[in-house]
Amino acid sequence: MAVLAAALGAASPAAAAEWMPHADDATWTYQWTDSVYNTTPTTEKVTVKSQKGATFTLAWTTVDQGNSTDAPVSIGQVVFQETSRGLFNTDWSSNQPPPSFPVLCATTTQCGNSLASTFYNVIWGTRSPTLAEPLLKGTTWNSTGGFQNDITSNSTYRGTEQITVPAFPMPVTAAKVQTQITQAGALGDPYGSGVRTIWWVYGVGPVKVEFEHAGGNAPITTSVLQSTNQTPLPPPPDGDYFPLTPGTKLKYQLTNTKHLVKPSVTSFAVDQVSNGSARISVKSASGPIKIAGAYGFTLRTDGLSSLWAATQSATRLKFPPLGPTSLPVAQRRHFVTPFDLLIYGFNPILPAYATPLSSWSAVVPSRDYSIFGVTGTSTIVGIQKVTVPAGTFSALVVRSTLAQAGFAYGSGTRTSWFVSGKGLVKLVFRHGDGSVSTVELLR
Questions:
Q1: List of the chain residues with pLDDT < 50
Q2: Which of 41, 98, 120, 286 has its CA 20 to 30 A from that of 419?
């Protein structure tokens, strides 16, 4: 069988571990059928074979699982890697699939593709990533797979729902991920194409897999968790409080009680998105500041972070200076757009899963400290109603205390209001010089 390895950058283990736990003693028992090619229920046991750092191997077998002589024999393994982008499949191997199954390659010889197991159905067409993280409302991702990378897919997180399986006779909450899969050029490519749905339970892994294959005979492969020693956990909150969705357009006004009395209005547009990172352009719409530029953001399991900012502005207004003193004046940041105030201080702007009362602090030394020279702490206060020109919303409130040594204007308290599915709607920065900057979403 095939052995394919993905070249992934180094990443620390992340929350993906809880969507696919892998303690040394973890076990899962699944039973799967195919309505056309394997009508006899086949039981397979899955165990953790090995793990090292962020990589772990799951092994499965149908041997000694009480299967009938008609059931296919399947013995194999899959290798996963946890990354800040989610769960990636980096390798797989097994015995050959049953000869009665469709051939999922262009030729019958040296074919490294199979769908004769639960985890082959899980990784089919979705190896990088198998499961994107953080898993938030509206999350979609494209992936590829197969022995010759001839399978393409588009996955969408459909939200959570209650599900009952033999392993959990009482309903548990599962994240539902639906994937459109296309294979082209294989002898059995209708079987390799179709719609697959996986129900993931936090703290357990997949509890049900259903693959509706294409083709005239319309086979359906179903795998259901029969037993496990893993315990279901409540899933993390899935609100997306800063959507990086292509085509999104937002307009804000910015004022400051001392330094910017007449509102400066700017328009933002998400114009490039790739692998969970986005470029957001900005241009002035009206007011005393002329500006053009762009900001880079990324969403990973360690949160929403600012990557870079490149702007040019012109104004007759005079703003107080910002630090840090370690940087030349020409390299220091300015507060001329709403996002300048938002990204100021330290990352993350928001954690991956926004849990009320969670907090995080500036790291010294760090890249952020070198750029901003700011210390402080951010805390998620909770959910509050907020009214801005764009409307009234239920918003997640984040409060940050920020201190920039020697610069009163760069010190103070910033409160930000974020709305799931929309993003930042309001920001109030009470500066150490006594002035107050206010950002509001206009539309």
A1: 1-16
A2: 286
